[in-house]
Write a structure and sequence with these properties.
Elements lengths: L3 H14 L13 E5 L5 E6 L8 H9 L7 E6 L11 H7 L4 E6 L9 H7 L3 E4 L3 H7 L1 H9 L3 E9 L17 H13 L2 E5 H7 L15 E5 L19 E6 L12 E4 L10 H10 L4 E4 L3 H9 L5 E7 L24 E9 L2 E8 L7
Parallel strand pairs: 3-4, 4-5, 6-11, 6-12, 7-8, 7-11, 8-9, 9-10
Antiparallel strand pairs: 1-2, 1-3, 12-14, 13-14
Helix pairs in contact: 3-4
């Protein structure tokens, strides 16, 4: 039976794991806490960057000899393979840890098996403590492994009546400075930021992370089907971060910088590119999480493809009455087809309201 000390230690491990958001991809975020044989804190750590020591190694180094006979609490099943680092399961065995409690099983076929290795060495192994909470903190990586595509978070900012711009197309600024700063946090946690040609033309966005010290700049992706929106000198082509311009196979890309072009098939129906093909190409480049900041047309294409995993809407206490809506055609023609969402959080951000929601069970896993 899990004790209060077990729960406290795992909660700490989950909090530690969150510190790695935005810097560990294509690896997961993982936290680890070690208690000594008397149940006293001995060491802790988290996975800080891809290619660097895993959470268990940081915690074992801090614990030293105090790890012997102790318990390790890990948010993800200890890995069982040698990549850029050695197997954590073996490191725990060699350190003399007598018990390992992990929250979520590793779905990665290359890394799984750590629990079996530990048991074979005589270590007591338990799974599932605070599993739901740990999974929520690692949902982007887990989704990418399970579905073979990046996790997609669609973010939009709108008035209380759902408008993202006025009738004359003016849109700066609907939401507050506090909300805009919060968006940079989302960017910092994502591997890639994606916008469409309409946003590229209208806003000339730079798409970098600002105001967050030590942030890893995400890959910037513009879906510019006919290669007409991104022009020489566009801010998205500066040196802040790498950039990809996703275009149709038959587009003329003569004026785009060499090395920025990603050619993809056109969508089977309607305008634009094949969204699953775009996500597959990004996944192949190591992208495990996408922040979709594109306008209503691109958002509609992602929703229609069933590839939106979370929605974060910033609603400002403003009314316009006219102007474009946050979501364009998403292949939904009747109320029975509506994409029902489960609201997971509502938070005040300055004068605005941030609403976070995920697709209901009927659409999860699409």
């Amino acid at each position: 039976m899990d004790t209060a000390a077990d729960t406290t230690a795992m909660r700490r491990a989950i909090a530690l794991a969150a510190r790695g958001l935005g810097s560990t991809s294509p690896n997961p975020v993982v936290g680890c806490v070690i208690l000594d044989a008397e149940g006293q804190p001995a060491g802790e750590g988290f996975h800080q960057r891809a290619g660097g020591p895993h959470a268990e190694i940081h915690a074992l180094r801090e614990a030293g000899e105090k790890a012997r006979g102790g318990t390790a609490y890990v948010t993800l099943e200890p890995c069982n393979h040698t990549g850029r680092t050695g197997p954590c399961a073996q490191a725990l065995i060699e350190a003399g840890v007598s018990r390992v409690v992990y929250a979520v099983a590793d779905p990665n076929s290359q890394a799984t098996g750590g629990a079996d290795t530990l048991r074979a060495a005589g270590v007591t192994v338990e799974q599932g403590l605070l599993g739901e909470l740990a999974e929520a903190g690692n949902t982007a990586w887990l989704t990418s492994v399970r579905l073979g595509r990046p996790y997609v978070l669609w973010k939009y900012a709108a008035t209380l009546d759902g408008r993202i711009a006025a009738a004359d197309a003016t849109s700066r600024w609907i939401t507050s400075a506090e909300s805009r700063a919060d968006v940079h946090r989302l960017r910092a946690e994502a591997d890639a930021v994606v916008v469409g040609s309409g946003t590229a033309r209208t806003d000339d966005p730079q798409l970098g992370v600002r105001g967050i010290e030590g942030a890893v700049q995400p890959l910037r992706v513009v879906v510019d089907t006919d290669a007409t929106a991104v022009r020489p000198g566009a801010r998205v082509l500066d040196t802040t971060a790498p950039t990809l311009i996703a275009v149709a196979d038959d587009a003329d890309t003569g004026r785009l910088p060499e090395g920025t072009v990603l050619r993809l098939p056109r969508a089977a129906t309607g305008r634009g590119l094949d969204i699953p093909a775009l996500l597959a190409a990004l996944h192949g480049r190591g992208v495990r999480s996408v922040l979709l900041e594109g306008g209503p047309t691109l958002a509609g294409a992602f929703v229609a493809a069933g590839t939106v995993d979370k929605v974060v809407g910033y609603l400002a206490p403003v009314l316009l009455g006219a102007g474009p809506a946050a979501l364009a055609d998403a292949g939904i023609s009747t109320i029975a087809q509506a994409l029902r969402l489960d609201v997971t959080e509502t938070v005040r951000i300055g004068p605005d309201l941030r609403i976070t929601a995920v697709p209901g069970p009927a659409r999860k896993g699409n």
